[in-house]
């Protein structure tokens, strides 16, 4: 079954250049992507190609200017509680303890107090922070806060999980531990996950498919099927198949990164020339 159907999505912004003039910035153009129910799909692409823009549209936090996007066959209107979001630095409520932060979504769903607490404790243990249950966010490091944000969205058990570089700010060891935890959680209940990352290895390790995007205006350049066996463990990173997929993905993305860089260099040069006369 298809969970998300994005067809011919167009999104552009009006931006001011260095000379103060308004310009059109086309971020997504003819962006097509189908995501299956229960699939773990990662999106890889050069910086600025529109990954977050697409996720924000999916989340109901931004609009698109053209094309159609359906979730469960319906157009997206506003932010829905069926969609769980994890962004980098996603805010916790400072006046609530860690455990109370984890319970927010469950309260909205009217889950009883005892059950709420048990679920929250379970997910807090998963991210290795049980000892901090009664601390407040400001008492935690940045990495710990991000782990709480991840645990919070997992505890909420949304139908669709949208994750925008959720591990980017974490140290390498915590990142690897959480990748494996996320695989376990996903393999246990197979909720649809759309996951943005800059790490090719992370995308391959976690995903059923990886969508590689072009430089801006962003389109899906290719969908890579990650035909690695599940359940996946860390050892799979060392397999020959993993290395082959990594090489293939890198070849696809390398050209786009170069294009994105020359695009940026072109903008800077034009602005410089305009400035000097
Ligand atoms: N609200 C906005 N107004 C103007 N420009 C925007 C807005 N949102 C995004 N952009 C621009 O759109 C482009 C794509 O941004 P987006 O954040 O989607 O890229 P990305 O692929 O997620 O990048 P990164 O990998 O660096 O996070 C960027 O050039 C960004 O500056």
From TrEMBL:
ABC transporter domain ranges (all copies): 13-240
Protein name (record): ABC transporter
Alphabetized UniProt keyword annotations: ATP-binding, Nucleotide-binding, Transport
Gene3D superfamilies, A to Z: P-loop containing nucleotide triphosphate hydrolases
PANTHER family assigned: ALIPHATIC SULFONATES IMPORT ATP-BINDING PROTEIN SSUB, TAURINE IMPORT ATP-BINDING PROTEIN-RELATED
InterPro entries, per the entry: AAA+_ATPase, ABC_transporter-like_ATP-bd, ABC_transporter-like_CS, ABC_transporter_ATP-bind, P-loop_NTPase
MF GO annotations: ATP binding; ATP hydrolysis activity
């Amino acid at each position: 079954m298809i969970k998300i159907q994005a067809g011919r999505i167009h999104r552009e912004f009006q931006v001011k250049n260095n000379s103060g003039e308004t310009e059109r910035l086309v971020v997504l153009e003819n962006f097509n992507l189908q995501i299956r129910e229960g699939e773990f799909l990662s999106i890889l692409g050069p910086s600025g190609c529109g990954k977050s823009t697409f996720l924000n549209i999916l989340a109901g936090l931004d609009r698109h200017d053209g094309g159609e996007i359906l979730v469960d066959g319906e157009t997206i209107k506003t932010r829905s509680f069926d969609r769980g979001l994890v962004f980098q630095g996603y805010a916790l409520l400072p006046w609530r303890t860690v455990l109370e932060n984890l319970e927010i979504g469950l309260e909205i769903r009217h889950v009883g107090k005892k059950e709420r607490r048990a679920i929250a404790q379970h997910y807090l243990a998963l991210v290795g922070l049980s000892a901090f249950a009664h601390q407040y966010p400001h008492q935690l490091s940045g990495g710990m806060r991000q782990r709480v944000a991840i645990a919070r969205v997992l505890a909420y058990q949304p139908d669709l999980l949208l994750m925008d570089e959720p591990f980017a700010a974490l140290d390498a060891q915590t990142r690897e531990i959480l990748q494996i935890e996320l695989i376990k959680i996903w393999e246990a209940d197979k909720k649809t996950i759309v996951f943005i990352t800059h790490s090719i290895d992370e995308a391959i390790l976690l995903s059923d498919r990886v969508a590689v995007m072009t430089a801006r205006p962003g389109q899906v350049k290719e969908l890579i099927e990650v035909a690695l066996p599940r359940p996946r463990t860390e050892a799979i990173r060392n397999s020959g198949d993993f290395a082959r997929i990594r090489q293939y993905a890198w070849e696809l993305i390398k050209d786009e990164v170069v294009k994105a860089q020359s695009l940026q260099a072109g903008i800077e040069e034009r602005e410089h020339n305009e400035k000097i006369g």
